[in-house]
Design goal:
The chain has 256 residues and is of the alpha/beta class. The protein has a single domain, classed as Alpha-Beta Barrel (TIM Barrel), CATH 3.20.20.150. It has 10 helices and 12 strands. It has helices spanning 14-19, 21-31, 47-57, 75-85, 99-118, 140-147, 159-164, 169-175, 206-216, 232-245, and strands at residues 6-8, 35-37, 60-68, 89-93, 122-126, 134-135, 138-139, 153-158, 182-185, 187-188, 196-197, 220-223. Helix 2 packs parallel to helix 3, helix 5 crosses helix 6 (140-147) and helix 8 (169-175) packs parallel to helix 9 (206-216). It is globular. It comes from Cohnella nanjingensis. Keywords: Isomerase.
Length: 256
């Protein structure tokens, strides 16, 4: 059986996080999540206070999503934060308007990847569906992977966005075996809208996805739901319960 530690991407509860930072973290831990993708704390909260609260809750920082469609990030500060927090991964997402644009950005991804590697971290590219556009017959995401050094740039694939882009998530994860240490897991409703769904409530085959992820060397499954029809905490609890019902959760060892 393929089991994984389960982390949360708190974009799902972004509004609640802005209103009650520590209370939101407490609710996520209470659901059962073991890891979290988290960045520097909000104004008025020190890193020491943040990390003390996370430790008390049993939530491990696994990495940070640094930016969307921007290279304007203080990577030195983020790397320093992740050293303090014990996280290993830095991820970003981008938009691309041409093959030339994608090639230029791939060069920059290699540069950032080298910076992260020098800081003993792993740099990841996180996909959406637009990377499944084709330039000269090749998916943008395949181009990015071809043009980046696997020692410097790896992947944080996303099951929903792979399916939205027209590919089978399990097959695409297997295609990039060895380059996907983190996997964002989210489901898709049936029907033309293909709206976000809680894991196990939609059309994606998560046992096949888990088998592909295990074969690809994925370390963590990271639950995220960009939008939903329920309260976001309820959605995250449903996703966690369904992952448990599928016997896909590897429980952490008891804390000493």
């Amino acid at each position: 059986m393929n089991r994984f530690p389960i982390a949360i991407q708190p974009y799902t509860v972004r509004e609640a996080l802005g209103q009650d930072y520590f209370g939101t973290l407490e609710k996520l831990a209470a659901i059962g999540y073991e890891g979290i993708e988290l960045g520097l704390p909000p104004e008025g909260v020190t890193v020491a206070e943040q990390l003390k609260a996370l430790d008390a809750l049993g939530l491990k920082v696994i990495g940070s999503h640094a930016s969307f469609n921007s290279f304007d990030v203080d990577f030195d500060r983020l790397i320093d934060y992740l050293h303090q927090a014990g996280g290993k991964y830095v991820a970003i997402s981008l938009l691309f308007d041409s093959k030339e644009d994608a090639l230029r950005k791939a060069e920059r991804l290699n540069e950032i990847g080298e910076l992260c590697r020098a800081g003993n971290l792993t740099f990841l590219y996180h996909n959406h569906d637009w990377e499944f556009r084709k330039f000269d017959g090749e998916y943008v995401l395949d181009l990015i992977m071809r043009e980046t050094d696997p020692r410097l740039v790896q992947l944080e694939l996303d099951t929903y966005w792979i399916a939205k882009g027209g590919e089978d998530p399990a097959a695409y994860i297997a295609k990039w075996a060895g380059r996907c240490p983190l996997l964002h897991v989210k489901d898709m409703e049936p029907g033309e809208e293909r709206f976000f769904a809680e894991i196990g409530e939609g059309v994606l085959d998560f046992r096949a996805i888990a088998e592909a992820a295990a074969g690809a060397g994925t370390e963590w499954l990271v639950v995220e739901q960009d939008a939903g029809r329920r309260d976001p905490f309820e959605s995250l609890a449903i996703s966690y319960r369904n992952l448990a019902a599928m016997d896909l959760i590897r429980k952490p060892a008891p804390r000493p």
